[in-house]
Write a structure and sequence with these properties.
seven-stranded mixed sheet; 25% strand; binds zinc ion; alpha/beta; 29% helix; 11 helices
Amino acid sequence: MLEPEVETRPWNEQLALDDEAFRAQLAYLRERSPFYRRKLAGAPDVGLADIAQLPVTDKHELKASATTENPFGSHLAADPAEIVRIYSTSGTTGTPSFIPLTAEDLDNWVTASARSYAASGVSAGERIVSTYNAGPFAAGAALAAFDRIGLCHIPLGTGNTDRLLRSIDLLAPEAVVMTPSYAAHLVERAADQGVDLRGSTVERVLVAGEPGGGEPAFRTKLEEGWGAKVTEAMGIGDIGVSLWGECEEQDGMHLGARGFVHAELIEPESGVALELDHGARGELVLTHLQHRAAPLLRFRTRDHVEVRTSACPCGRTGPRVRCIGRTDDMLIVRGVNLFPSAVREVVSGFVPEVSGHILVRPRSPGVKQDPPLPVSVELAPGTPAKDALADAICDRLRTVLVVQTHIDLVPWGSLRRSEYKSTLVEH
Ligand SMILES: [Zn+2]
């Protein structure tokens, strides 16, 4: 554990410290952030226990407040001279959103990331290969966490899978960090090329960047392919880069950013706050507690999570989360909320007859879909398409997810692979 005195602190003591920090942060927002001065006009001065009385913040509002004179948005609260780093978000259209950080903000990001990644069990002196082409993106700050932990960091990026496999062979790293999609892709490529990934030195595969790495069947597939333990981490650029990280117990991610960020859950359609009870599901809402450059209050992450509150044998305290999907990928099929990663998880239970790759193909635009929902399921190499298999997958999806699907079995290699994030829904 990187900071045992912090990470094992009783959660009620953490909340008391966080409450104090939050009150100071709220005063700072009222004083320094034009965006929040306007948004909080007339809102009560509350502590963390009553934070749900304050309005949520949506990404679109922040973006809408950006101007040519202030490209960050009106939530910029620090003197521009204090800004030491500016990341961009990987928005798909037009002008990027910028994320400014003061030196202290950046240091806190790295501290949180280091705790989150260290939870996986990687430790000083080991080698880690990273495959992020971080460039302008916040993921770059996560890479600094590896220095903080004391790892020997080998940045290899994506784009040349053969070189990556060769480098793993020659440099003998104990760990790799990548998206779960790429981890799955490498298992296939290694098999194609007769590379023995299971026999490599890699003992830990750290996955982040998209949901799925914590889903049992998908995780098992990765662990068998790599012969290594798979743990996941998660963050969101606007708040912090690797806020959460799973420990070796593999039962949800701990909040590495404890003390810097407060986590809440809301019911996404109504916005009603939910208790962080064991098994609760909802959208994660995050609040900065000691941020300076452009702090955010009750920011809607669009990440849907499930909460764990049982004691973790590793000794870290506080609620844990597992990401079950992104709001933007969610479909509603006859009243049932459905995440494509959940479909993949059920279908992965049919390995080795299927490859584990799926593509949900909604028949109409928008979130609401009439059943049956078409799903392409890719077969394993050399497996023929059989009606009995399609029927079995369809039955299992109906039982587990309460959704009526139409399964189209497609040949091995016909669904697109990704070196970064997978597309599970055809929009
Ligand atoms: Zn743990």
